[in-house]
Design brief:
single chain, 296 residues, mainly alpha, DMT family transporter, cell membrane, EmrE-like
């Protein structure tokens, strides 16, 4: 797979996640956040499991104990991101949530610099700034006073950055994106269901009322999109992956306006344009600079 194809997979994942923001918000009219997280990732685990078994037959090496521990750690990061985002949606809008979640585009290169000692291509910094500015403009160029949901979503962005970074480096070592996906889904489902059973009421009628959202987010946002993420990240860098995945805010804000009546001002369209420019420069500039380097 080429880097262009990988980044297009990440863009598709972001579009699916954008639709997931709407489903996550509407589902909580019927069911608590942790029951929703647990059920969506249980569905995702079951959806991916047949493909994991197929992947295991073709795998050249078995998963080591070290890699299994990394899978579990990535699952805990995924649970942290999913929980803070879902609970945050109770007291913030879909537009604000998609904007603030997109801050992981800044946190990923910072993690690469400070923890992995890996300096990204210089274009990542202006590209990240353009992407974040574009996401900000999607909110209309201003946010209301920060709510508890907004603050939780900032924490969510940190967890997403950790998950993106760890998933990218781990799947490059193992070559087992589906095994990683299934493990992180299962870890998240177990953690969320344990919390839900302890603190949230539930009924069969509530699950039935939220079933369309659970199935959409479980099969597509959790199953398909996260698999696309870990496959795509094998062939691109964590910083470029963050830029492309951040476009979920573009799709989330657009669908919130279309389906939930959340308004998108003129500045929102400027934000969309700026995000696409950021993705283009991050995609094109590294290749152009490599071609201009003299042969050794």
């Amino acid at each position: 797979m080429t880097r262009v194809q990988a980044n297009l997979l990440l863009l598709l994942a972001a579009a699916i996640w954008g639709g997931g923001f709407v489903a996550q918000s509407t589902a909580m009219k019927a069911i608590g956040p942790f029951w929703f997280i647990g059920l969506r990732f249980a569905v995702a685990t079951l959806a991916v499991l047949p493909f994991v078994l197929f992947e295991a037959r073709k795998a050249k090496e078995k998963t080591s104990a070290r890699h299994a521990k990394l899978y579990i750690l990535i699952g805990l990061a995924l649970f942290g991101g999913a929980a803070t985002q879902q609970v945050g949606l109770q007291t913030t809008t879909v537009t604000n949530s998609s904007f603030i979640t997109g801050l992981y585009v800044v946190f990923v290169p910072l993690i690469a610099v400070f923890f992995l000692r890996r300096a990204p291509h210089w274009i990542i910094w202006p590209g990240a700034l353009m992407a974040v500015t574009g996401i900000y403009l999607l909110s209309g160029g201003h946010l209301s006073a920060l709510t508890p949901g907004d603050l939780l979503t900032v924490v969510c962005a940190v967890f997403w950055a950790i998950q993106i970074t760890l998933a990218g480096t781990t799947v490059s070592e193992t070559g087992r994106p589906l095994a990683l996906s299934a493990t992180q889904f299962a870890v998240t489902a177990v953690c969320a269901l344990a919390v839900a059973a302890a603190v949230e009421p539930v009924s069969l009628s509530a699950i039935q009322a939220a079933a369309p959202e659970i199935l959409y987010v479980g099969i597509f946002s959790s199953g398909v999109a996260f698999v696309l993420q870990v496959i795509g990240q094998r062939y691109t860098t964590p910083s470029q992956a963050a830029i492309f995945l951040s476009s979920e805010a573009l799709f989330g804000a657009s669908l919130a306006a279309l389906l939930l009546g959340e308004t998108m001002p003129v500045t929102g369209y400027a934000g969309c344009a700026l995000m696409f420019i950021a993705m283009l420069v991050v995609e094109l500039v590294p290749g152009l600079t490599r071609r201009r380097l003299p042969a050794a």
